[in-house]
DNA sequence: GATGAATGAGGGTTCATTCAT
DNA sequence: GATGAATGAACCCTCATTCAT
């Protein structure tokens, strides 16, 4: 069996994403991790602290999965389109739970400045990644916005329909930009 | 002073939107409403029940405010652009709290089917409203997606920057569609 | 059986005095009072809140017991001497637990301003009571100081020896003041 | 840097006196001492054990400071009066935290016999010191009682007022005893 | 001689809900 | 129609201590 800290993080990766932050109690985390309560607090200052580690780890995981998923793409256009396929892939894998960053953003009061900062910085990194791939600033933000929208609306309707539709839209945008 | 039921709803309209569902306790609601606990449960079966009433009332309020805000528009194009101005207006009025429907969607476990259904139906109504104004189905969904994205990202960054950018994008889309 | 609030207070009167504030947990209080935890917090905002009620109630109790004990005294001198007998009486009754106000003063960090204020005000009332009985300000404070000292040292040595000695001293002071 | 054991004791000297026994956790002690937890328990059997060492060290420190402070005195009377000045000096230096022995006495349940014994023995030593300086047993206890009272009441009111008053009283007592 | 990891028990507090009146 | 009292379950967190290395 792995070390407690690792077990806690593994459990948290699942629970925070699937159930949300407020719906996941420390008690469930330690039970699922087979760790004592005091042991948990030896490794994490507070639940908020764990949340930040979660957000960091989630971002690393999500980005690497995305990179991996689109790595076969030959052109920039293909990269973008595959990114949307990735959303479909993740929705099916994770049961349409949407974006952990936006979910937690909705849950956490704005007084928790640290967490908000982390969420923003990760989301900004994603937006920047879109920008890097395209010279046209306007176009990249345009696609980024559609991307975020796809995440949110597919969670909302528990369906990939709008993602597929968006793929056509994006294809059109990229064509007309050449 | 108005009737208890009304007072509860008025309080709830503020608290659920500003603090979220899980961060708002029944105790705060009844205290702010100057209503007894037993009285609360006489009017609402449960907190979930209140949540549904909240969602309905919030939708009615939000749509009517939107309609009112864009009522002066002469053309369809103007209506759309004014809709985005409305988002800016609301962000400033409500301190970038985003969309109550999406916020609660993030907070509530998917087992609470009833609430999810209500959220979906209201959001679908909004999407349909976009569709009604435009013959082009693809275009209206395109704009709808940008609209949702603007709500989410402006909440995230606590800034109207992307909304303004999106207005330009939408303007372009509407022009080229004629 | 009496009402929960009363039961809680009765339990608290015993436990805070006998065990001290920090050594008495909410759990023990509610168990001994046969009251649920949530019920406790319906009646008392916090443990600190309960502490303040305890201090008030303790003062009222202690003063009335004192008044009652010395009520038979014919002269001022007799009143004073009987006050010291009262300390002996209470030590035997309460197993040399000393003064709840001073005990809690020792336990509570000075940041808890409210509690410190209450302690001071009750102790000041006692000092003032000594002053009222004697024109000579210096003498009354002198006796007051010996009184406090008797409480503290009898708790310390778990013995009434010094109280008895002090009675002689006070007798001498009062004689020479005439 | 000094040895772990010494560092722990130095930290404890400050924390137990300033915050009290129950309000000072082992964690704070080892952190402030830059010592590992296991290392702590190698040097001290338990927190109670540390407490006893603290009491011993505190007594040695306090007495030596007192001796030093009053060492310039030419007469017995002066020695006594300077002792009260010492209380004022210490109150200002240590922010009116009173007597560690009495504070801990208030905090510790009487079942902890060992600690109570140590407290008593140190306090008895102080009382004996007063006795040594004066042939008159009654008078020395009288002054000793006023001394204890001054410690307690100055902590209570966070003021040296009563100490100054007591100095006059003691001066009177010593005069009339010659 | 020194350490970081791990713990059982308990700390105080809040939750949404029910019930007797 | 309205209420205050009462609750079981859960909340996040800290305590002094032990153990394997």
From TrEMBL, chains A, B, C, D:
InterPro entries recorded: Homeodomain-like_sf, HTH_TetR, Tet_transcr_reg_TetR-rel_C_sf
Annotated DNA-binding residue span(s): 25-44
Query: Which keywords does this chain's UniProt record carry?
Result: DNA-binding, Transcription, Transcription regulation
> Pfam families recorded for this chain?
TetR_N
Q: Does the keyword Transcription regulation apply?
A: yes
Whether Lipoprotein counts among this entry's keywords is: no
Which residue range or ranges hold the HTH tetR-type domain? 2-62
The name this protein goes by in its record: TetR/AcrR family transcriptional regulator
């Amino acid at each position: 069996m792995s070390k407690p800290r690792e077990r806690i993080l593994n459990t948290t990766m699942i629970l925070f994403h699937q159930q949300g932050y407020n719906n996941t109690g420390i008690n469930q985390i330690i039970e699922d991790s087979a760790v004592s309560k005091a042991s948990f607090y030896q490794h994490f200052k507070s639940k908020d602290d764990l949340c930040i580690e979660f957000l960091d780890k989630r971002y690393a995981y999500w980005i690497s999965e995305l990179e991996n998923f689109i790595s076969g793409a030959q052109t920039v256009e293909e990269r973008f389109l595959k990114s949307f396929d990735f959303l479909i892939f993740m929705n099916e894998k994770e049961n349409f739970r949407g974006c952990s960053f936006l979910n937690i953003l909705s849950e956490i009061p704005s007084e928790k400045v640290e967490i908000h900062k982390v969420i923003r910085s990760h989301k900004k990194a994603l937006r920047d990644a879109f920008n890097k791939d395209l010279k046209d600033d306007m176009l990249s933000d345009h696609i980024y916005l559609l991307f975020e929208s796809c995440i949110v609306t597919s969670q909302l309707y528990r369906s990939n329909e709008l993602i597929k539709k968006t793929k056509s839209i994006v294809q059109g945008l990229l064509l007309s930009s050449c």
